[in-house]
Design a protein that fits this description.
A hairpin with a 5-residue loop joins strand 3 and strand 4. This protein has 651 residues and is of the alpha+beta class. The protein is built from 15 helices and 28 strands. Strands 15-16-17-26-19-24-1-22-21 form a nine-stranded antiparallel sheet, with no helix packed on it. It has a seven-stranded antiparallel sheet with strand order 2-3-4-11-6-9-14. The structure holds 2-acetamido-2-deoxy-beta-D-glucopyranose (6 copies). The site of one 2-acetamido-2-deoxy-beta-D-glucopyranose has 3 residues, from loops.
């Protein structure tokens, strides 16, 4: 039953982590291209958990290859419990102080193991493991402080300045994400158990915990146990142990050999003299780091001492200052003269990223940036307790303590293989191997006497006396910084001035441009207006012309019409006159005819009378004829002729 449940739990967790990994895998691998040293101050750590019984803070760093690492600083009060988490990344931890017990269940074996840990202990856990930590309840002891470094593809895929993937997730959160029914069936427990799990308020990740206070007489209650264990109300170990009581006996032997942490203070240091001591260990040296490519070192410099100039051919050093303060100098292996490289960075702020302070040429925050902007520069850092400093491989460095106190730092080194720090000083120095002739040439010396002195003056140890070195370097660095700040201030002013000028110039240009445009627009409008007017004028003219033509045409027509009418009238008049004339003529004719008729009739009458009277009576007739001759001659003549004719005829 218990075994099945545990496996179920593991399956759930694996499923979740696979999903998380898939989600993060899509992101582009972060590449810093960062060179040079880097410092993240204690104040700039990210707070991951903040509970009464303890805190967890985090710092993300990256090496020169762009591989990201996450550091967690777990600090627990005495008598506290760091509730179970599942690791999403490989973890190497170092116990800085206090005593406690680290319990873990490795994914592969599904077995629970636990480690008694104390100051100096180092251990490695693989991702997928479930882990919880108990600090022993003893008020006189120090807090349990653990420094852990996490490495994984998930963390690495992230931009270390903006972490999204967590190094681990809380088991309670993973479980509570499921529906009650799923929990009930999945674990084969009663509904109320599942409901209790779902409904309980999630406690802080570190809670006060003192198993001694509880009576051991309580009867085992499976229902309570699962709730308590998962939510951290009771000792999870107790619960898990109970379920494995039978197995435990068999596994005891095999477990012991593995569950032993390495302690830095147990053996002899690599180097030890009156200026300090140092000790290094790699995964080759120790079972505790087996399967990890993280190595560790610890250096204690007494007052006025120096860890001689050296560099790591294969490892990046990520160190945490655990005591005092000191100076770290890094040299850019590939930089031009310091003057030139210094000029290469004008981005001012030495503190970069989420608190990084370093000598690469650009602010880390962007993560991108051209390679030019990230020029390495030699640098001197002052670091204090709690600060993290990173020195990439190939970067020669030296660490120095002040005259008034010791300087202790613990570090993780990322091994790309077998790393052997290369010291410039000392008998084993590479400089010795190169030889004074070649070295003289490479240092631009005319003859080898200076180099000879340099080489022969070298001391045996890598840890050396260096009275007031740190102070002087700091002084110089401060001076340098002041100078630089001054320079930068000036440059900034200059830049701002130029920008202002540029701005003004641009504005001026803009104004001119606008004016020009305005002018052109106006001209254009004017032109258009004129064109329109011209057009209108032409149209008008055309219209007028047409009107005039029309008028003329009409006039013409009118005139013609009138002429025609006049003609008509004249013709009519003529006609009328002719007709009148004819009428008159006709009437005259008729008159004459009538008169002739009358004449004839008279003549007839007269003749008859004459005939009757016998030819008298004719004397007065010519007189009448003569009277008539005056007034109307032609008809008279005509009548005369007619008279004659009539006479002729009648005669
Ligand atoms: C607490 O520490 C003191 C002093 O180191 C020691 O004498 C005592 O036994 C410790 N108590 C427990 C419960 O570990
Ligand atoms: C176990 O705990 C649950 C919940 O507190 C309770 O209901 C149950 O009676 C307990 N069982 C025993 C055997 O004590
Ligand atoms: C470092 O050395 C100083 C002086 O020898 C000593 O007082 C101090 O306890 C040492 N620190 C560690 C962590 O070993
Ligand atoms: C070194 O300086 C020279 C001249 O200023 C320049 O051409 C060269 O790119 C620089 N090299 C590096 C690595 O900065
Ligand atoms: C030690 O000396 C340095 C440099 O002179 C100074 O900054 C620092 O405050 C001193 N530390 C202590 C503990 O006096
Ligand atoms: C080497 O050069 C230094 C000055 O650069 C000079 O003082 C010294 O005499 C020279 N030694 C030899 C052996 O030429």
């Amino acid at each position: 039953m218990a075994g099945a449940s545990a496996r179920w739990l593991v399956l759930l967790l694996v499923a979740v982590s696979v999903a998380l990994a898939a989600a993060s895998g899509k992101r582009e691998r972060w590449r810093s291209g960062a060179v040079g040293g880097q410092v993240v101050e204690k104040e700039r750590r990210r707070v991951v958990a903040d509970a009464e019984a303890g805190t967890v803070t985090a710092v993300d760093v990256a090496d020169a290859e762009g591989t990201a690492y996450r550091l967690h600083f777990i600090s627990m009060d005495t008598g506290a419990l760091f509730l179970p988490v599942q690791l999403h990344a490989d973890m190497v931890f170092y116990v800085h102080s206090g005593r406690g017990k680290v319990t873990y269940i490795e994914e592969e074996s599904g077995e629970q193991s636990s480690l008694e840990v104390e100051r100096g202990d180092v251990y490695n856990l693989e991702q997928g493991s479930i882990l919880y930590i108990q600090s022993y309840p003893n008020a006189t002891r120090q807090r349990l402080r653990i420094y852990a470094i996490f490495t994984s593809e998930g963390i690495n895929a992230d931009d270390p300045w903006k972490p999204k993937v967590e190094a681990y997730s809380r088991v309670s959160n993973l479980l509570k994400g499921f529906e009650t029914e799923v929990l009930r069936l999945g674990f084969g427990v009663q509904r109320e158990v599942a409901e209790a799990i779902k409904s309980a308020k999630t406690p802080p990740s570190i809670i006060p915990y003192n198993p001694q206070e509880k009576g051991d007489d309580e009867k085992p209650n499976w229902t309570e146990d699962i709730v308590d264990a998962l939510l951290g109300v009771r000792d999870p170990e107790e619960f898990l142990n109970k379920k494995k009581k039978d197995k435990h006996k068999h596994k005891e032997k095999g477990k012991k050999s593995k569950s032993k942490a390495f302690n830095f203070y147990s053996g002899k240091p690599d180097v030890h003299n009156c200026y300090g001591w140092s000790k290094t260990m790699t995964n080759k040296d120790l079972d505790a780091l087996h399967g990890s490519n993280i190595g560790m070192f610890i250096v204690n410099l007494t007052t006025g001492s120096m860890m001689g100039p050296h560099w790591n051919p294969k490892a990046t050093e990520i160190a945490i200052v655990t005591e005092g303060s000191g100076i770290v100098q890094t040299v850019c292996s590939s930089s031009n003269s310091s003057d030139k490289s210094r000029r290469g960075r004008h981005h001012g702020d030495e503190r970069r990223g989420p608190g990084g302070r370093g000598d690469e040429g650009d602010k880390g925050g962007g993560g991108g940036g051209g390679s030019d902007a990230r020029r390495c520069r030699n640098s001197v850092f002052r670091v204090k307790e709690g600060d993290v400093f990173v020195v990439p491989r190939f970067h020669p460095m030296a660490q120095m303590s002040f005259n008034n106190g010791s300087f202790v730092f613990v570090g993780f080194s990322t091994h790309m293989g077998q790393n052997r720090p290369q010291f410039l000083a000392g008998k084993g120095s590479v400089l010795q191997v190169i030889g004074k002739e070649v070295l003289s040439l490479s240092l631009g010396q005319k003859n080898s006497s200076a180099v000879e002195k340099l080489l022969s003056a070298q001391r045996d140890s890598t840890i050396l006396s260096c009275i007031s070195c740190a102070e002087e370097l700091e002084e110089n660095a401060a001076e340098e910084r002041r100078r630089q700040e001054e320079e930068e201030r000036k440059e900034k002013e200059e830049r701002e001035r130029k920008e202002r000028e540029e701005e003004e110039r641009r504005k001026e240009e803009e104004r001119e441009r606008k004016e020009r445009e305005e002018e052109e627009r106006r001209k254009e409008e004017e032109r258009e207006r004129k064109e329109r007017e011209e057009e209108r004028r032409k149209e008008q003219e055309e219209r007028e012309r047409k009107e005039r033509e029309e008028e003329r045409r009409k006039e013409q027509e009118e005139r013609e019409r009138k002429e025609r009418e006049e003609e008509e009238r004249r013709r009519e008049q003529e006609e009328r006159e002719r007709e009148q004339e004819e009428e008159r003529q006709r009437r005259k004719e008729e008159e004459r005819a009538r008169r002739e008729e009358e004449e004839r009739e008279r003549e007839e009458e007269e003749r008859r009378r004459e005939e009757e009277e016998g030819g008298g009576g004719r004397g007065d007739e010519p007189e009448r004829e003569e009277q008539e001759e005056d007034g109307d001659e032609p008809p008279y003549r005509l009548s005369k002729k007619l008279k004659k004719r009539y006479r002729v005829r009648s005669g």
